[in-house]
Amino acid sequence: MKLIFYFVAVFRALFVFGFMSIYMLVYGISCIFVPHSAERAFRLRKHFLKYVAIPILNLKIEVQGKPADYACLYVCNHRSFADPIVLCRFIDAFVIAKAEVKNYPIINKGAELTGVIWVDRQNQHSRNQTRSKLVDTICSGYNILVYPEGTVGKERTTLPFRKGTFMEAAANGIEVVPVALEYRDKTDLWVIPKFLPQYFYQFSKWSTHVKVRFGQPIKDADGTNLHHISYEWINAEIAKMQDGWSRMF
């Protein structure tokens, strides 16, 4: 039985990465006639996620709440490498991602094409540049998605949130939308450092169940308040989603 599901994961990878390459190729050719824009790239990403990645990976997503209809900073807890697949199905946003993802073939090009801001979390200069880009991007009318834990959380509650993005949001009058995300099974947690072993660990099962909760936009001139309110709301929602449903803890 395990061998069967292993082959399921192999075929899923071939189809997802194969279609991703085709999408990028067709989009690249189309840019000869219609210039590249963030709006076009977001539509491409949403179409790919809705009609290719999510059905092939058999992600069963339950959503409550809805994104804001204007540019905001979205902050979400981080569980799995599949988190951006889930969230970018519902929001058009530039995702702040760790620089290591640049080493993932095909994924890195897809991310760069459809909206990513790389950050080296160990480099102060890179973190400062990312904060500046965050503000400029939102002030230009585009959403930003960030995972303020800075890495994946594997416990019942989130890891402590880093305060930098909240301070920038407060200083620049940017509204923050907290988002809570939870998976049902332990195999969905990112517990294996290497991408491919983790992929097979997670997607060698028939389906993946995930819940998403969008909160109301929060605006506050005090970054510490923004940080605290977002942190408490996300953890409260995670607890609600886990109750009677989660198989993780």
Can you describe this structure?
With 249 residues, this protein is of the alpha/beta class. It has a single domain, classed as Glycerol-3-phosphate (1)-acyltransferase (3-Layer(aba) Sandwich), CATH 3.40.1130. The protein contains eight helices and seven strands. The chain has helices at residues 2-30, 38-57, 83-87, 107-114, 124-139, 164-171, 195-203, 223-242, and strands at residues 59-64, 73-76, 93-98, 116-119, 143-146, 176-183, 208-214. Strands 1-7-6-2-5-3-4 form a seven-stranded mixed sheet, with helices on both faces. Strand 3 (93-98), helix 4 and strand 4 form a beta-alpha-beta unit. Helix 1 (2-30) packs across helix 4 and helix 6 (164-171) crosses helix 8. The radius of gyration is 18 Å and the shape is globular. The model has no long low-confidence stretch (mean pLDDT 93).
A few lines on this structure:
With 249 residues, the protein is α/β, with parallel strands linked by helices.
Percent in strands: 15-25%
Element pattern in H and E = HHEEHEHEHEHEHEH
The unreliable regions are: none
- Multimeric status of the protein: single chain
Quick check: average pLDDT? 93
In CATH, what is the class?
Alpha Beta
Derived structural class: alpha/beta
| Shape annotation | globular
The fold-level CATH name is: Glycerol-3-phosphate (1)-acyltransferase
* N-to-C span: 25 Å
Widest sheet: strand order? 1-7-6-2-5-3-4
CATH architecture: 3-Layer(aba) Sandwich
Radius of gyration: 18 Å
User: Sheet with the most strands?
Assistant: 7 strands, mixed
Helix content: 40-55%
Total E-strand runs: 7
The total count of helices amounts to 8
